[in-house]
Every structure is written in C-alpha cells, then in structure tokens.
From TrEMBL:
Belongs to the FliQ/MopD/SpaQ family. The keyword Magnesium does not apply. It is found in: Cell membrane; Bacterial flagellum basal body. It is a multi-pass membrane protein. GO terms for biological process: bacterial-type flagellum assembly; protein secretion. This is Flagellar biosynthetic protein FliQ. NCBIfam families: fliQ (TIGR01402). Keywords: Bacterial flagellum, Cell membrane, Cell projection, Cilium, Flagellum, Membrane, Transmembrane, Transmembrane helix. Role in flagellar biosynthesis. It comes from Cryobacterium frigoriphilum. GO terms for cellular component: bacterial-type flagellum basal body; plasma membrane. The chain crosses the membrane at residues 20-39, 51-70.
Length: 91
C-alpha cells in the first residue's frame, strides 16, 4: 500500500464526512440565524427560544436526510472493502 492510496482514502473519508454533516449543520445554521434575528428584533433573550427550534429542525433534517446518509456511508464502506485486495497488492 502506497502513500497515494492512503491519502486518497483519507480524502474520500473527509469528503464523506463533510457531505454527511452538511444537511444538519446548514439546518442548524439557518434556524439559529432566523431565531437570532427574531430575538434581536423582539429583544426577547430566552435561551430555550434558540435551543428548542434548532433541536427540532435538526431532528427533522436527520429524519429527511437519514436514509441518504446511511446509503452514502454504506456505499463508502463497500467501496473501501472492495479496494482491500488491490491495496494489499493481490489484484
């Protein structure tokens, strides 16, 4: 196994991590921004007002994107397992 193969697998893993975390992080960012804007307009500074909608939105994002996230993880795992013989020099 050479250095390029290790770097390629690491890069693919990082790209997969970014793809899988993007829906949740973007949802939390958008909802957090909207709630912060609402709080600054109304001057209501309640901690639960920012936490509860964000938690609900992230849960909805996980429900909506969960199947895709699992499918991407499984496809990546299958691709890595399929590469094992060539990485070990057997094929």
């Amino acid at each position: 196994m050479d250095t390029n193969a290790v770097l390629d697998i690491g890069l693919q893993g990082l790209i997969l991590a970014a793809k899988l975390s993007a829906p949740v992080l973007i949802t939390a960012l958008v909802v957090g921004f909207a709630i912060s804007l609402l709080q600054s307009i109304t001057q209501i500074q309640e901690v639960t007002l920012s936490f509860v909608p964000k938690a609900i939105a992230v849960a909805i994002a996980l429900i909506v994107c969960g199947h895709w996230m699992i499918a991407e993880s499984v496809a990546f795992t299958h691709a890595i397992f399929d590469k094992i013989p060539s990485l070990l020099g057997g094929g």
